[in-house]
Amino acid sequence: MRRDVQKNLLLHGGVLVALFALQFVLPAYHHGNVARIMVLATYAMGYNLLFGYVDLLSLGHAVFFAAGLYGMGIAVSHLGVSAPLGLMIGVLAGGVVGAIIGALALRTEGVAFMIVTLMFAQAGYLIILYFGEITRGDEGFVIQQVDRLFFGGDLSDPFIRYYAAFTVFCISFLSILALLHSPFGKTLIAIRENQERAVMLGYNVMRFKLLAVIFSAALSALAGATYGLLFGYVGASFASVQYSIFPLLWVLLGGAGTALGPLVGVFFMFYLIDISSGMTTAYMLVAGVVLVGLTLFAPQGLMGEIRRRFWRWLP
Amino acid sequence: MSVLVAKGLIRQFNGLRAVDNVTLEIPEQQVRALIGPNGAGKTTLVGLLSGRLACSNGRIDFLGRDITKVPPHKRIAMGMAYTFQITSIFPSLSVHENVAIAARRLCRNEKDTRAVVADALKRVSLAHVANTDAADLSYGHQRLLEIAMGLSQSPRLLILDEPTQGLAEGEVAEFIKLIHDIRQNTTVLLIEHNMDVVMQVADVVTVLNHGQVLFEGTPADVQANIEVQTAYLGGAHVKA
C-alpha cells in the first residue's frame, strides 16, 4: 500500500514537473499548444469527474464550459470587473448552472440523462445566440489586452500565459486527487461501483450525484473562464455540441476514471489532428481510424489500458 | 419497546398480492426468522420494511417512528442494516474498503473508520483478507463480507436475506456462532431456508405463505405445527 502511494507521488509529481519544465525547451508554436492543452485538460478533468468516477455520461458539458467563458467574459468586458474577479464569477456561474441542470437532469438515468443534458446544452447555446447584443452571437467578442491583467501579469504574454495555464491545471489536478482520496470521493466511487448497495448503506445517492455535477460543472467553467482570459476570445462555438463531444472523446481516449487520462487524451487528440492535418487534408479520416483502433484495442483508454496491464496502482 | 412494528402491509404487483395484509412486531434483541416456501413473499416483505419497495397499503414503525414514507437511505441512517439475497458488494474494491464505505458514514475520521472496519472484519473472521479485492473472495466469504458491512454500522435492526444460501456446512456452523455473537446487542430479522439454522438461532419464527402470515411461534411450535409442515416442507416430509 505504502509503496503504491510513493509510486503515485512519483508519477504525478513527475508529470507536473515535466509540464513545468517543458516551457523552457519548447519552440514557440508548441509552447502555445501545451498551454492550450493544459486548459483543455482541466475541462476534461471536470468531465472525467462525472463520467469516470460517477458513471454519469453527460452530452452537454459545453454549457458549463460556456457558462465559465461567458460569465467571465461578460463580467470583464461589459461590467468592467478585474480579471481575477471575472474568473471567480465564471466559476460561480458554472456551479449555479450545474446545480440547476443537475437537479433537473438527475431525475433521469442512462440514455435519458444523455439526452436531457444535450438538450440543456443546446438551450444554452441558443440563449447565447438569442442575446446577441451582449454576446455578439456567432461572432463572439475579443477580450481586450487591458482586461487580461491578472495581478499585474499580462495574460497575453506567452510565458505568463503558460504559467497561468500550468497553475490552473495543477490546482485542478491536485484538487481532483485530493477529492478522490477524501471520504466524499470514495463514496462517489462506491456509487459508481454499486449504486443500489450505496443506497442500502444509508447514503443519499442523489445528493452525492448532485454535488458531483456541481463540482464537475465548476471545474469545466474554470477551464472556460481561463481559456477566455488566456486566449482573449469569447464565442458561441464553445457552447456548441462539438464542445460537449470533445471532453467525452478526450476522456475515452485517455482513460475514463484515471487521474491522468484527461491530460493524456487531450495531448493525444490535439497532436493527432495537428500532425495529421500537416500531412493530408483528409486528417479527420486519420483521426477517425485511430479512434476506431483505440476503441477496439484499448477500450479503457490509454491510461486505463496501462493500469490494466502494468500499473494496477494508478488512481 | 418494539424495534419494528408493521401493520397490515400490502404490496400489490398488478394482479398479484405478493404481501397480503402482514402484521409483524419484533421486540428488541430478538432473533426473528422469516420462513416460507419459494414465492411466499419473504423478500418482498423485507423490501417493504427496508424501503426498497413502496407499500401499497399499511404502516411501518421503526424505533417508534412512522417510516412508511421514509426513503431507504434514511431508514438505514436511522439504524437498519440490510444484506442482499444476491450478494451485493463493491467487487473492484478491497475487502477493507467495502466495509469502510459502510462504516465511514457514521465515523468522524479515517482513524475511527479503520478501527470500526478492523473490528467488523474480526467478528466475521475476515481480518486476514482485508487487502484482497472483494471480487477474489470465495462466495461464502463474500456473504460474510456483506454481514460485516452491516455490522460496521452498529445497526439496531439487522435484516439478513438468506445469508447461508450457498454456504458450505462448516461455514454455516460459523454463521450460527456469528448470529449468537450479534444477538447480544442487535435485533435480527433473518430470512432463512435452512431449517437447522432457524431452529438453532431464532427466538420466534414467522411463517409466510401466499403473502400471508400462516403461523408465528417458537421454533418448537413451528416444528410441531402440521399446517406449517404441509405448506413449507411439503406433505411428504410430515413426520408424526
TrEMBL record, chain A:
<dbReference type="GO" id="GO:0015658">
    <property type="term" value="F:branched-chain amino acid transmembrane transporter activity"/>
</dbReference>
<keyword id="KW-1003">Cell membrane</keyword>
<dbReference type="InterPro" id="IPR043428">
    <property type="entry name" value="LivM-like"/>
</dbReference>
<feature type="transmembrane region" description="Helical">
    <location>
        <begin position="113"/>
        <end position="132"/>
    </location>
</feature>
<keyword id="KW-0472">Membrane</keyword>
<keyword id="KW-1133">Transmembrane helix</keyword>
<dbReference type="Pfam" id="PF02653">
    <property type="entry name" value="BPD_transp_2"/>
</dbReference>
<feature type="transmembrane region" description="Helical">
    <location>
        <begin position="210"/>
        <end position="236"/>
    </location>
</feature>
<feature type="transmembrane region" description="Helical">
    <location>
        <begin position="248"/>
        <end position="270"/>
    </location>
</feature>
<dbReference type="GO" id="GO:0005886">
    <property type="term" value="C:plasma membrane"/>
</dbReference>
<feature type="transmembrane region" description="Helical">
    <location>
        <begin position="87"/>
        <end position="106"/>
    </location>
</feature>
<feature type="transmembrane region" description="Helical">
    <location>
        <begin position="9"/>
        <end position="29"/>
    </location>
</feature>
<feature type="transmembrane region" description="Helical">
    <location>
        <begin position="160"/>
        <end position="180"/>
    </location>
</feature>
<keyword id="KW-0812">Transmembrane</keyword>
<feature type="transmembrane region" description="Helical">
    <location>
        <begin position="282"/>
        <end position="302"/>
    </location>
</feature>
<dbReference type="InterPro" id="IPR001851">
    <property type="entry name" value="ABC_transp_permease"/>
</dbReference>
<protein>
    <submittedName>
        <fullName>Leucine/isoleucine/valine transporter permease subunit</fullName>
    </submittedName>
</protein>
Automatic annotation (TrEMBL), chain B:
<dbReference type="InterPro" id="IPR003439">
    <property type="entry name" value="ABC_transporter-like_ATP-bd"/>
</dbReference>
<dbReference type="GO" id="GO:0016887">
    <property type="term" value="F:ATP hydrolysis activity"/>
</dbReference>
<dbReference type="InterPro" id="IPR032823">
    <property type="entry name" value="BCA_ABC_TP_C"/>
</dbReference>
<keyword id="KW-0067">ATP-binding</keyword>
<protein>
    <submittedName>
        <fullName>Lipopolysaccharide export system ATP-binding protein LptB</fullName>
        <ecNumber>3.6.3.-</ecNumber>
    </submittedName>
</protein>
<dbReference type="GO" id="GO:0005886">
    <property type="term" value="C:plasma membrane"/>
</dbReference>
<keyword id="KW-0813">Transport</keyword>
<dbReference type="GO" id="GO:0005524">
    <property type="term" value="F:ATP binding"/>
</dbReference>
<keyword id="KW-0378">Hydrolase</keyword>
<dbReference type="InterPro" id="IPR051120">
    <property type="entry name" value="ABC_AA/LPS_Transport"/>
</dbReference>
<dbReference type="Pfam" id="PF00005">
    <property type="entry name" value="ABC_tran"/>
</dbReference>
<dbReference type="InterPro" id="IPR027417">
    <property type="entry name" value="P-loop_NTPase"/>
</dbReference>
<feature type="domain" description="ABC transporter">
    <location>
        <begin position="4"/>
        <end position="235"/>
    </location>
</feature>
<dbReference type="Pfam" id="PF12399">
    <property type="entry name" value="BCA_ABC_TP_C"/>
</dbReference>
<keyword id="KW-0547">Nucleotide-binding</keyword>
